[in-house]
Amino acid sequence: MSDALRAPRIGPRLLRAIAAVFTLSLVAYILIPVLVTLAMSFSGAAQLRFPIRSWSLGWYAEFAASPQWTGALINSLIIATGTAVMSSVAGVAAAYAYTRYTLRFSTLLYVLLMLPLFMPGIVLGLGVALTFSRFSIGGYSLLGSHLLVMIAHSLWAMPLVFLLMEAVFRMIDRRVIEAAQDLGCPPLRTFFEIEVPMISTGLISSLLFAFVISLNEFVMVLFLTDRDTQTLPVLMWLGLRSAATPQIAVASVVISLSVFACLSLIMVWYVRQLRKITR
Most-buried pick from 63, 157, 163, 240 (CB within 10 A)? Predict the structure, then answer.
């Protein structure tokens, strides 16, 4: 009898148990830091301490009443929204061209598009700061502006949009598009009326992923913002170095809720599109 036949077989129940334990461990690994931060935001102490000895909503009230913290949150939302729009437009256009046309040096182009994704944030941030430090538009300096941070964040967000949308464009049934073109539909109208509904799930996902990447980014922002345009992660880092109050935990909860809201929107949109397909 061969060694393969002699080897004990792992039953399906054991495999399911192993998979369940691994999944639960992974979920706990992800959720425990989030839950600890959430609990710390309700601390009544003057500094971050664990375990919590008193509970209070005071730090949430101070966060809402602080122009510095709310201003940083508004800056983060403005930059994340602009980054999502810029990177989505560029990434979708690049993915469309890459999948629809035969391009010279396509392999080199692909590597160049992916290169910023693997570069350290400190390198990209310093490079963008040095490159645009003397640039201005109508007397308005780019360094320290929302626009420059959007451009820098797009260096990371655009390759992810490109990766996702490239796969989406390759899965489209080309026969539907060719049929529309054979019936005389112009290319631009074909794209917006035929292709956009077909890629809507990937498009919404790309937009929200880019938003989340920009919202959470910290390293590049250190080089590119000033006091008026600093984002919430930067203010959290500065607060951690000085007072280290539970207000930092409140800011963490705000960012986490924004991320969970984006993920929920992606799931809701995906389920809606799936139901339309299965009807």
Answer: 157
Residue 52 falls within a domain, yes or no?
A: no
* DSSP character at residue 191: I
CATH of the domain at 252: 1.10.3720.10
Structure token digits, residue 13: 């129940």
Cα 111 to Cα 107: distance, rounded to the nearest angstrom: 6
Establish if 75 belongs to a structural domain. yes
Neighbouring-strand partners of residue 224:
none
**pLDDT tens figures, 132-170:** 877 777 777 788 888 899 999 999 999 999 999 998 888
Residue with tokens 């260096």: 155
The answer to whether residue 26 sits within a structural domain is no
Listing DSSP states for 23-62 in one string gives HHHHHHHHHHHHHHHHHHTTB-SSS--SS---B-SHHHHH
Q: Which residues form the domain of 88?
A: 60-278
By CB atoms closer than 10 A (0-12, 13-18, 19+), residue 138 is exposed
Say if residues 193 and 96 touch (Cβ distance below 8 Å): no
Q: Residue 86 has which token pair?
A: 């810029």
Q: What does each C-alpha distance from 277 to 178, 271, 272 come to in angstroms?
A: 21, 10, 9
Count: domains in the chain: 1
pTM of the model: 0.85
Res. 273: pLDDT tops 60: yes
Alpha-helix residue ranges (DSSP H) falling in the chain = 3-6, 12-40, 58-65, 67-100, 106-114, 121-132, 146-171, 174-182, 187-190, 196-198, 200-216, 219-224, 232-241, 247-278
Question: Is residue 47, in this structure, part of any structural domain at all?
Answer: no
